[in-house]
Amino acid sequence: MEIIDILLAASFWEAAIRIATPLIFGVLGALICERAGVLNLGIEGIFTAGAMAGWMAVWLGAGLWGGVLVAALAGAFFGLIHAILTVPLGLSQHVSGIGVTLLATSLSYFTYRTALPDVSSPPRIEPFRPLDIPFLSDLPFIGQALFSQTAMTMLALVLVFVTGWVLYRTPLGLAIRAVGDNPSSVEAQGLSVYGLRIGAVVVGSSLMALGGAFLTMSAFDAFFFGMINGRGWVCIALTVFASWRPGKALIGALLFGAFDAFQVRLQTEVGAFLPSQVFLMMPYILSIIALIVVARKADYPKALLVPWFKGQR
Amino acid sequence: MIRFEPRSNPGPLLVYGVPVLAATIAILLAAIPLALAGAPIIEAYGLMISGAFGSVFSTSEMLTRATPLILTGLAAAIAFRAKLWNIGAEGQLYMGAMAAVAVGSGVIDGPSWVMIPVVIIAGMAAGALMLIGPTLLKTRLGVDEVVTTLLLNFIVLLFVQMMLEGALKDPMSMGWPQSEPVIDSAAFPALLERMRVHIGLIIALVSAVALAIFVKRTIWGFEIRAVGENAAAAKFSGISVTKTMILVAALSGGLAGLAGVSEVAGTRGYLATDLSPGYGYAGIVVAMLARLSPIGVIASALFVASVFVGADSMSRAIGVSSYLADLIVAMALLCVLIGGFLTRFKVHFDRKSVHG
């Protein structure tokens, strides 16, 4: 059976984890923001900004990890804009998020075009190389599927555990979860609602930017217009699917990556019978289906989208 | 210590002045990226103004751009009034355009007074259906419409691509994925000789006035406003929130679909996947700049269209990236958001903290 062959190949799971990596960053970022009560629709633009800024830093000679840092800072910058507009000013999170996406996208495109006015083919950088860990990378199957990914994929996997640990095992995490459910209770304990929310949005946004940076610095080696192609919006859907939990976010992103890798392979098998666009639509359709499946029992953070003002009881 | 105090009744100066101020600030902020790009700033602004208003031709181009922006702006304004977060106007526009091409490129024919209404109705119905789906998912199953409408934009664009390589492909297009041209009897006539501005502009203006009257003067308009302000209270007072939402979805999706019809039947003449440079998303900015007022949408669409046409022409002349226009529009959105805050709240700077 050919489908079984596809699913059992190490190269399939290698591709699935690679496709999942930017989504892991993005969903972690989105869930941190939403756990604190702020929907961040700036995600699509922040992905673009991270992809462009990280790539450009490397291209200008900052080194790969320098690029990662620059991408994270770019994400933090746009996150701060969204945070100021939605937290102390309490403006519409929907509209502010769309505004941040438009701003981050156009600023990234403008900067790229200004730095490289007339290049016909995008310049390339030397991206992150697949890891070659002694022993681990030589293991059968898992060596290729997991331990031959790049360092950024490993970073994403580590961040899943870090985020889970912070959210569920530290006082800070307790405060972040509380500020998204019942901000007044946090205020009553003498903690700053504004500080926690702004901090969560800034940190979450820098993770989103790393998702973008992965695309230009690890999955590919150049920046293209329109390369984010809705990945940010997919992350927003996956966040609901993951019930705002880092572990489930990892599973959701991996399922999504596996499905996407599978449809690419299916396309080479049966591509002659169906237009390619049918396959390209699959990730978006899958995201909508995932949302419908969990919608009834989705346990949104109670204060998500609800602005809170100082002195309010 | 900064305190915000709600204003009971912002005066007309604030209500009308703030969006104008926001737009002006966004234009002025563009000097920063212009300077960083090494462009002559004063000259660049001059070129932008003459690019949008310098001649009959450039003004006609600006009005041609404004036409779909008025319609997508109205689509966002009516939806946001009811707090239906329709971010899918781009997809609805393409569905409208595709429906218009499907019936308007020779399958049926008739006199213009039949064919033009036929393509308009087909396009509006297609756009409306594209939004009624996500709205039903929202009201029946609680599926967030923001994400579904956003994702549908990508699905629709791929679907259009598929149709343009398949059923709707023009056999005479030498392999380009584009549709057959809209037939003459279904095409929107031009308003001026040798200019591109067409009756789509009149249709858009009439739509804005009609929508304003609908929202202000009819019981349905009242219900839409009531649901938007407080859905729970509206429900309590006997308004069917689901029905109102579906009415809003039909109007909003229909208007976005009409923008697509106007683009294929008026401006372009055929359907291709580059029909819209993001009119659906820009419509959100137009609506917010207009503070969701249908008449205000006309003014803000003219502003956004001038920015696009002016920046295009400026970028051709002095080689600054035309993404500057998108940048100005995005900054205008964020400025007007902050401005909206200042109309609703007074800001006090106190010497002492409230908590002492």
Explain what the structure shows.
The complex is a heterodimer of chains A (313) and B (356). With 313 residues, chain A is mainly alpha-helical. Chain A has helices at 2-8, 10-35, 43-59, 64-86, 93-115, 142-145, 151-169, 171-181, 183-188, 193-219, 231-241, 246-270, 276-295. In chain A, helix 2 runs parallel beside helix 7 (151-169), helix 4 runs antiparallel to helix 5 (93-115) and helix 12 runs antiparallel to helix 13. With 356 residues, chain B is an all-alpha fold. In chain B, 71% of the residues lie in helices and 3% in strands. Chain B has helices at 12-29, 31-36, 41-53, 56-81, 89-104, 112-141, 145-165, 200-217, 219-229, 231-236, 241-268, 279-289, 294-318, 323-344; strands at 2-6, 345-349. In chain B, helix 8 (200-217) packs antiparallel against helix 13. The mean pLDDT of chain B is 91. The interface between A and B is large, with 46 and 48 residues.
Summary, kept brief:
The complex is a heterodimer of chains A (313) and B (356). Chain A has 13 helices and no strands.
- How large, in whole angstroms, is the Cα Rg of chain B? 22 Å
CATH architecture of chain B: Orthogonal Bundle
Put simply, the count of helices of chain B is: 14
Q: What oligomeric state is this?
A: heterodimer
Show the helix and strand layout.
The complex is a heterodimer of chains A (313) and B (356).
Chain A: H1 2-8, H2 10-35, H3 43-59, H4 64-86, H5 93-115, H6 142-145, H7 151-169, H8 171-181, H9 183-188, H10 193-219, H11 231-241, H12 246-270, H13 276-295
Helix pairs in contact in A: 2-7, 2-10, 2-11, 2-12, 3-4, 3-5, 3-10, 3-11, 4-5, 4-10, 7-8, 7-12, 8-10, 11-12, 11-13, 12-13
Chain B: E1 2-6, H1 12-29, H2 31-36, H3 41-53, H4 56-81, H5 89-104, H6 112-141, H7 145-165, H8 200-217, H9 219-229, H10 231-236, H11 241-268, H12 279-289, H13 294-318, H14 323-344, E2 345-349
Antiparallel strand pairs in B: 1-2
Helix pairs in contact in B: 1-14, 3-4, 3-13, 4-8, 4-11, 4-12, 4-13, 5-6, 5-7, 5-11, 5-12, 6-7, 6-11, 8-9, 8-13, 9-11, 12-13, 12-14, 13-14
